[in-house]
Amino acid sequence: MLMTSGPWVWIAAMLTLAIYSFLYKDNPFYKIAEYIFVGISAGYWAIFLWWNYAYPNLFEPLAKGNYLNIIPIGLGLMMFTQLFRRTAWLVRFPLTFVLGVSLGLQIVAAVEGDMVPQLRGTFSPFSRGVLFGTADFWTSIGYIVLLVGVLSTLIYFFFSKEHKGFLGAGARIGIYFLMIAFGASFGYTVMARISLLFGRLHFLFSDWLHVIK
Amino acid sequence: MREPELRQLAKPDRDTVEVMRLKLIIVAAIIAVICNVDIADASTTPQVADSISILPPRIISLKDTPNDAGTSIDIEWELSPTESLIPGMIIEYQVLRAPSPDSTFEQVGSVPAGTSTYTDEGTIPNKPYWYRVAAVGREQQVVSEMAGPGHSVMQWFDRRRIGVAIFVALTCTLVMVFIEVAKRKGKMFLRRLPVFDAIDEAIGRATEMGRKVLYIMGQMDVDDPQTVASMSILARVAERTADYGTRLDIPCVWPMAMSMARETVKESYLRVGKPDEFNANDIYYMTSDQFGYVAGVDGIMMRDRPAANFYLGSFFAESLIFAETGYTTGAIQIAGTAEVDQLPFFVVACDYTLIGEELYAAGASLSGDPIQIGSIRGQDVAKAIFFVYIVAGVVLKLFGINWLETLLKID
Known about the structure:
Largest sheet of chain B: 6 strands, parallel
Shape of chain B: elongated
Number of strands of chain B: 14
Number of strands of chain A: 0
Number of domains of chain A: 2
Mean pLDDT of chain B: 86
CATH class of the largest domain in chain B: Alpha Beta
Largest interface: A-B, 65 and 73 residues
Order of helices and strands of chain A: HHHHHHH
Number of domains of chain B: 2
Largest sheet of chain A: none
Shape of chain A: extended
Helix content of chain A: over 70%
Radius of gyration of chain B: 34 Å
Radius of gyration of chain A: 27 Å
Distance between the termini of chain A: 13 Å
Strand content of chain A: under 5%
Structural class of chain A: mainly alpha
CATH topology of the largest domain in chain B: Rossmann fold
Low-confidence stretches of chain B: 1-14, 35-46
Oligomer: heterodimer
Helix content of chain B: 40-55%
Number of helices of chain A: 7
Strand content of chain B: 15-25%
Distance between the termini of chain B: 23 Å
Strand order of the largest sheet of chain B: 11-10-9-12-13-14
Structural class of chain B: alpha/beta
Mean pLDDT of chain A: 90
């Protein structure tokens, strides 16, 4: 017999259908699923953050004698000062601390992880062979297209001058490269999303309805 | 700083008798082949192998791994002679470590036969360690003589990353110089992006229609540069909504981003002289779950039908869901992100899209803050230098000169 699944599979299936009902229009079933989703996920994240971040990184080391942890705990408690009008300004200290530290740390990561490898990757394939035709023809063309694409896109993201003359021409080529890249990325990502849809359909037809074995 | 310690170890005595025995067995095996005896028989080969003792490897050196934080030691050994005499008899080498010569040696890693180096990545700086290497066969294993002590030492500089250091220093110096110039000059030119006018147009439309403005800061917290850039644009949007008396609705993913958004909007309302109209409850935490947040925001879009939707910050799989839902409600949509995979969705479904770095430039330009504007100018000069660097790198490489590429080599 079909549909012999347990109650949790039924609940999951009903909620899946309720969410998909949004494709028709906003309706009470979607609202119920939405409120359950938002409420449960908010509660889940509160517990998740406590057990995976706050407790093991702050309170457990503090209990073991790492008293330096009083500083981040103090900064964390300052977040609650915004609940009171007279002390609300104190919230700026933890915010600016997190902002400064995290952005500072990201400078090196961005240079090392993105900028330097991309700079190097743009010209490292070039050699005498690429220009004088001893390398594979289409490979050589690919490297040259890569070089032109990087340089023209770099021009597009130049903000200190108006895009006129040489800069204008370069920026126009750059935007074409960007749009071609976006088109390819769009197709690729849509395919990935369709696989997510298949996953959900498989759940409905296999785990719930048992139509697919 | 201590120099990396290199221990040249005394060559241990060789069991010459064992070597001779091995050689005799091999000679016997060759004769057996010539005489048509089936030595490849599965039942005889292991017996021959089992009757031979594996000769031990010999540790040549224990060196501190260069350019690290003092948490690893490089161990190098001479392969067991058995490997060349009877290939396949040794399966792997196990590296054993002890905190003192008298302690029990415990395995810290293993490598396949034929490998003579291993990096022990679990050491504490300046703590002495003693090592042995075991050659492991199918039925037996033999351990090398002990070597040590070896120490791992922290290096202040990772010399492999000199190129990164140069580029970080160059970019930071340019940014700081131009921030100073911007502070002194007061105003510097930044190219006007079409989205500047679109922001005012979208808020004006919302005001005329008597509907609210929805502002989404993306999925990341305040530690993400895109969220910070989004705050600068939010300040401008909040100024306009305060000016026009339009409601600004900001559901947030993270509590810290919510707090920062509240501070930003509050300041904007103060700037336009309407502090009493600021409503902190319009900036609220929804959930930190990606799709829970999407479900909630989609509900707001369908029920409240905001006339203008802003999606500015770091977005992931939710980008198209937001943009499509907003499109069906007929809202003017302005988006901006540096997430390359999400930009195509915004480009096709929104009225205006800030592509990548435009998000930061727009934030700086709208804020009018000399620090932000100077920073963008500094980055532009850095970009011009990189442009020249790439062109020079290609030209030099075509002439077989590689030093510009070598400078950027990280490993």
